[in-house]
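By way of example, what follows is a protein record of this kind.
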Amino acid sequence: METPNVPYAFELLLSELESQLKKTHEAAVHAMSNSNYEEAQKFLELAQRIKAFTDNIRGKREEWNNLLNDFDNTRKSGHRSRNRKLQKGMRTNEELYRIPILESLKELGGKAKIQDVLEKVHSKMKNYLKPIDYESINSDPKSPRWRNTAQWARFKLVQQGLMKNDSPKGIWEISEKGLEYLLSQGKSSKAQLF
């Protein structure tokens, strides 16, 4: 439950309410100094209402913090914390995606939509993926971990010049260097990786 903006929103709201309360008090004092007791009374009543509302918001902030604590305690007592880093070896190694990504691109004519590439990559790797590779990730709960790992592998392939970095958005494309690398690896390297 990632809610970094809620505490900030409470603080911002409380700050604004306190500012309004101060202005209302100042208006009451000003009305009193001008002997306008009826107006001063209205401002004092408004100040009381703002104070009660502010106290209510403080109570809601406390209630929210309790909900977060309950959530965190429930999560900690359940499965592995989603924010904790995976131990080495729990997920399929990113390096193992290199050849399947490059092979998939070659089979798709050198470039293709991300979804098409990932479908082929999954087909090539499904017998090697671990159960944890199918779990969702925090940043995208609808996406399994293996897809995220494949995208990080792609990022490194781009950095190494094995894939193009200037492809249109949503398209992955193998580079000439990537084709050469793939040819140099041959089928025996793929067998060794798995």
User: Anything to note?
Assistant: Strands lie at 111-113, 136-137, 140-144, 171-173. The two ends are 37 Å apart (CA to CA). The longest strand covers residues 140-144.
